[in-house]
Amino acid sequence: MIRGIFDFFESNGGGMVSAELTAFDAKARGNNVDVMWNTASETNSDHFDVERADVMAGSDAAFATVGTVASAGVSSTSRDYSFRDLG
Hints:
Elements: E1 4-9, E2 16-29, E3 32-43, E4 47-54, E5 62-70, E6 79-85
Antiparallel strand pairs: 1-2, 2-3, 3-6, 4-5
């Protein structure tokens, strides 16, 4: 579980977007991975990009976006999110 406040920069305009992440988990399901997270609050969020690390032996990890999940935008209540990576 991860707790804390994470700030993200929007790719367009560089505005600050905040989401208070209260839980994060990922579970392997055969060849897939279920990713679940919870936010306690969000301010001006649009979406979450879900990324996967591609690690080759002896090299640094390169991350690629494998999906996008719409967010609440503005919320002061707990929100649950999930994504299934079919990779």
